[in-house]
Amino acid sequence: MKRRKYRSKQRRANPYFRTTEKQRISRSFVLFVITILGMVGVLSIFIYAPFVRLDLGGVEGGSVEVNEAIAERVAEELTSYSLFIFPKNHIWFFSDDAMRKALIDHFPLNAATVARSSGLVDISVAEKVSTFYLVKDDTMFAVDRSGVVIDTVEDLDRARIEIEYEAGKGAPLIYDKRSASVGEGETVLSAERLENIVRLFDQVQAKTMLTPLNANLSDEEGRVDIETDSGVSLYFTLNRPVESQVDKLESLIDRKLVQITELSYIDLRFTNRLFYH
Questions:
Q1: Which of 181, 177, 133 has the alpha carbon at shortest distance from 157?
Q2: Which H or E element spans position 152?
């Protein structure tokens, strides 16, 4: 202790032992550089290390061409950078919702689901269809995307369509129970309402434990009833956004407010009311 005090006094007394201003600046600069380099190194580990990066897993649900195009688009997004520095495939910077919205806006899709699993991004899509099938008085009609009846479906083709439908392929079957007649070249539904019916099927399938079986149209304006595999019928209206109605159904199921298998119907058509029995 005495020796240390002696050396300190000696430095104060002898100018040759004093640290110059340049030395202090140099030392501070070196410490500053070392600190910055250390911070950059730590940040590089958390930004560029493989364990924080995402890769494309798989794409399913669409046709081969659409799936390949989606895979290419997602892979391109995952290899790009934000502000030329931050990789978009980082677990912090990659947005599932933004990717889902971009896919729906860019491709002919009714729905898209983006999920992560073990560092992989998996995409599931529901592709828009070009031909719908409507059953009226036990006769099946082919309807294009604009809602116009193309032709009557022959028995052999109808059997094939129904087999594909039971296997979960193709557009939902629409049963027209309205009083108006249907004929070739007539418009039975608007293109928007056709898309909304398909969107209802896709979203009910994606957001709930229910599997839609078919859609039923009635004379009530905008009403569409969807039958499900659990035996419960879902009442929707096409006069309001279908997404909010499906969200209400999802909330009802998630909160376990009712036992779905014990119900015969759930009426989701009204904004501030919910009926079920």
A1: 133
A2: strand 149-152
Phi and psi at residue 178, to the nearest 5°: -80, 160
Query: Is the separation of the CB atoms in 114 and 99 below 8 Å?
Result: yes
Q: Do 208 and 253 touch, CB atoms closer than 8 A?
A: yes
**Strand 120-127 vs strand 212-217: parallel, antiparallel, or unpaired?**
unpaired
- How many residues can be counted in the chain? 277
Q: What kind of fold does domain 131-276 have according to CATH?
A: Rossmann fold (3.40.50)
Q: Which of 57, 52, 122 is nearest to 90 (CA)?
A: 52
Q: Where are the domains of the chain?
A: 2-48, 50-127, 131-276
pLDDT digits (tens, 9 = 90+) for 28-82: 777 878 888 777 766 666 666 677 788 898 998 887 888 999 999 999 988 887 7
For residue 224, what are the β-bridge partners?
Answer: 217, 236
Q: Comparing C-alpha atoms, which of 116, 115, 99, 112 is closest to residue 67?
A: 112
φ, ψ for residue 248 (rounded to 5)?
-65, -40
The count of other CB atoms within 10 Å of the CB of residue 164 is 11
Alpha helices in 62-127 (DSSP H): 64-78, 96-106
CA distance 236 to 248: 11
- Averaged pLDDT for residues 128-145: 85
The DSSP call for residue 53 is B
| Residue 175: CB atoms within 10 Å | 15
Burial of 8 (0-12, 13-18, 19+ CB in 10 A): exposed
List the Cα angle 22/27/28 in 5-degree steps.
100
